[in-house]
Specification:
The protein folds into two domains: 16-159, 3-Layer(aba) Sandwich (Rossmann fold); 170-380, Rossmann fold. The chain starts with 15 loop residues before the first strand and ends with a helix. It is globular, with a radius of gyration of 21 Å. The chain is 30% helix and 16% strand. Helix 3 links the parallel strand 2 (43-48) and strand 3 (62-67). Helix 9 crosses helix 13 (360-380). By secondary structure, it is of the alpha/beta class.
Amino acid sequence: MVIDPEPSIFAGNRPRVLVLRFHSLGDCVLTTGVTRALAATARVSVATEERFRPVFSALPWIERVLIREDLVSGRGRAAGAGVTIPTAVFDRVIDLQGTPGTRRLGRALGREASTVRTRSAARRWQVLWGDRFPHPRVPHAVERYAKAAGIAGAEATTTCRPEVRVSVEEDTAARLLAPEVFASPPGTAVAIVTGASRRTKEYPSERFAQVAALVRAAGPAVWWIEPPGSGDSSAGRSRMAPPGSPHAARLDHGRLDDGRDHVPGAAMPFLRLPLGPLKAVLARARAVAVSDSGPMHLAAALGRPVLGVFGSTITGFGFAPIGPQTHVLEAMDVACRPCGVHGRNHCWLGHWRCLRDLEPARVAEELLKLARQSESEEGDG
């Protein structure tokens, strides 16, 4: 593969823009609306990691998806065999990763480059001091990405609302891997997505199992989903099984229940899918309950009603879900929140109150509200 280095700034041609965002899943999703806005006046390419290619691959306004593993900064050579990337091949590079390495890469590949402000110092202030003077405001990530791209205005989260689509190939793969999901029309089941990058962000599986039982008792079917990379050799498969197995309960300190398995009565679809087919499955859900994680942003960008369950992290960090119907549930009166910018694997105080105080009955109630609202609006449509 050779990236054409032809100049593009001349009459009748649009400038070539490269957007850099290598990781993680949620951040990649949050850049999609910015790429859509840029595509109104430019030819837009994206560089990301191979595992996150499906975030961008079905978007019609993306000209090319480049892979991080094939890019190196400096002299314009490539790590991948047969790939040559000349320097200054793009008119503009927009670095939405914001690391020294991506800044160097942006300068190497673009005639001009801009970089996002991470605002990590402001988030660390909130961890240490909470909402105290000087009360640093952290804009939503979408606002920061839009500003780096030169898209100004108070409506950035609307103009650049994240959007993800499902390709025909991804839908076909999902039908093969999870046929039970496609046995009923779209919007007939609620999805519960487990997992998060840190344990203090992850609503425990044994509690989500209680939520599933309550939701199913109220009528809707439930799909139990573990995100990509969460597991074992069953990745890319589905099966009918309850989620009470030992690997599902990941809090090894301060368990939030009495230690018993809380298994819903009958079996339900238990899904562990690659990212592409996962998009196709989430797109069919009536509503989605999920911890503060990449799949939360993925479901919202697919236009699904989303209940984001936040533990130790807060929406003030700038990563609340953005979509047509999104709601966040969090324990507001826990003084030690937030205890870390990215969450932690252990509760320093041992009480896990940021998760313990969110009772499954409350989570199920909010999820059912979203599901009923979605059903009502689709019926009116």
